[in-house]
Design a protein that fits this description.
Helix content: 10-25%
Shape: elongated
Distance between the termini: 63 Å
Mean pLDDT: 84
Oligomer: single chain
Strand content: 35-45%
Radius of gyration: 22 Å
């Protein structure tokens, strides 16, 4: 996903043990994504990699704010992101090949961080009541279909 080698961890060059990596997903990162619902944002990421002889365990924490389009008024709206996920090497492998048999044993931390951010975005995103664009709220209100009152005769 990322062409920035700062996000790519070459597992072959690291010694067995614990390693920490800090990086940030910024506006340029999110704007470069195609077909992403994230407009922009700033997300601090901390990865802790526990590399062992045959596998590894990665703990990836993401904290920050991203902006998405409000489903109601279509203005950008902020969403706070705060999550941490633990990932084992066998969860990332597409086939049942061992760690040492991998052709290119590397991790793109930017893709993993993006995935964690993405799963923290609600399906429906809208501003809190009263925070939507006022002009759009008026337009929406003007085009609401009112349900007929069941207590009134419709003759």
């Amino acid at each position: 996903m990322s062409e920035n080698s700062h996000y790519i961890i070459d597992l072959q060059r690291l010694p067995v043990g614990s390693h920490s990596f800090d990086f940030q997903l910024d506006n340029a990162f999110f704007e470069a994504l195609e077909k992403s619902e994230i407009l922009n944002g700033t997300v601090a990421c901390k990865a802790t990699l526990n590399l062992r002889e045959e596998d590894y365990q990665l703990s990836l924490a993401v904290h920050g704010t991203v902006f998405v389009v409000c489903d109601r008024c279509l203005d950008p709206m902020p969403l706070d992101i705060n999550d941490e996920q633990d990932i084992w090497s066998d969860e990332l492998e597409e086939e049942n090949t061992s760690f040492h048999q991998s052709i290119n044993p590397s991790l793109d931390l930017s893709w993993l961080a993006y995935e964690i951010v993405s799963i923290n975005i609600p399906i429906v995103h809208s501003h809190q009541p009263g925070e939507c664009n006022k002009q759009m709220e008026l337009l929406l209100h003007d085009h609401l279909c009112a349900e007929p009152d069941p207590d009134v005769d419709q003759e």
